[in-house]
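Holo prediction. Input below; ligand is uridine 5'-triphosphate.
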Amino acid sequence: MEGVYSEGSRHALPGLMQQTHERIIVSVGGSLIVPDAIDSAFLRRFKDLVLGKVQRGYSFTIICGGGLTARNYQHAAEAVTPLSRQDLDWLGIHSTRLNAQLLRNIFAGYAYPVVIHNPTIDIDTEDPVIIAAGWQPGWSTDYVAVQIAKNLGAHRLANLSNVDYVYTADPKRHPDAQKIERTTWKEFRALIPEEWDPGLSAPFDPVAAKEAETLSLEVAIMNGAHLEEFGNYIDGKPFRGTIVS
Ligand code: UTP
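Structure of the complex:
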């Protein structure tokens, strides 16, 4: 597999307390990894938080979004040549894979040695961290995350982006929009469009939401900039964000 392996020495996990064996799926928006330039400070804090939870027995499958990298490449290509939706999607997919390789290297020693592309393959590993990226045109990384949750039998998916909550309407256009702390898939899906469009400003891909509903998956939507909230969610404590279940 072309250049996807990255060795890194295996790190022992001293004093691993086996309090839980839960694998949590995390969809990390590209806006957090590459808001304008790559946010190394965020990546450092994210790594520390994840490995702190790994010490307590949690394991993580982390799906990386494309963010500005995807949009920059798509806009640059379009400015030169008219491209099909599929071609633009491939630029997005490779952007998610570049971001995923970055995370894979950051978690070297803890992470499965290959970035997962196909979310339906069997992944037989004891590695506490698995990194995944975009799979095929017409999908989003949210949808990849839901498919991986299905494949691994995970019950909780944390969607880290740059919004604090799901709101009753787009708060940028409707200042009176109300935050939602807990909702059902039925109610959530009534708030968002039915179709997914790349670049759609919905808190979670509608196609992924439909699949999550059939799986009875719990998805927590929160602002990855406030990583302590992610920590609280993992611990089952009150957190700033929205739970859809
Ligand atoms: P993202 O999932 O990051 O989409 O994939 P996004 O809407 O830009 O989400 P945020 O803002 O990062 O959270 C980036 C692009 O890559 C393509 C799509 O074109 C998408 O817009 N993509 C991604 C696919 O075509 N298939 C995939 O499986 C994943």
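The first helix runs from residue 30 to 33. That is the main takeaway for now.
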